[in-house]
Write a structure and sequence with these properties.
about 25% strand, four-stranded antiparallel β-sheet, 8 strands, alpha+beta, about 230 residues
Amino acid sequence: MENRMAMTQLTSQMGKLLRDRFGKGPESIYVSANEVCVSMHFRQFVSVVEKIMLQQNKDEAVRDTRQLVMDLLVPEFKALILRTLGLELQHIYYDWNLDNHSGIMIGLVDSSLFDRYQESYRGKEYIHRQVERISAEAEKMPDAMHSFWTNARTLVIVRSGILIKLEKELLRAGYEPALRVAKRALEKSLLVTEVDMNQALGRTPDGIYLDWKFDQDQSIIVFTFPSETST
């Protein structure tokens, strides 16, 4: 009961925070948490101005503006989650599906806990093998990878140690925005075409999200699914 009340409080306050900063909040926020992660799935999150920009194919301008605002809000997000759920987050990731006006925010607790939080689920070996292969094709094989469900609709994959020397040099030279755009397009395309979730899970995802902490050489991939069918 206390956990459900905390989730309700977090959802309400997160919606207000986003409305205050963006002028319009999501129509719904689906929140869940486990020992190492908090996930928030935003639905129908787009302002009037953003709709106009998207109609003019200015997707990256929308992403850039959101990143500026979200980065400023990270301390408030962390404080809110600590206050409501008692979880101290190390990193916060986010990404958007601008086609259907949805988004995901993932907050990770200390990643040193991952080795202790091992979850088995149907299709895990196949999914890890395919993501490793895609990572090697796009950059390099991850030094470490963990995955877990935060709820029956949200599969989170965390990769560490994937940047190649050229990418690190581009980051030092100030090309982070361009690198982020290129990596998102390339990896998302590979994930869509080369990871058969129907084969692995018997389910079809309705969203794929990616984000990076380049200074930590860490990345997340999130698959969302349309129903709460048991995993």
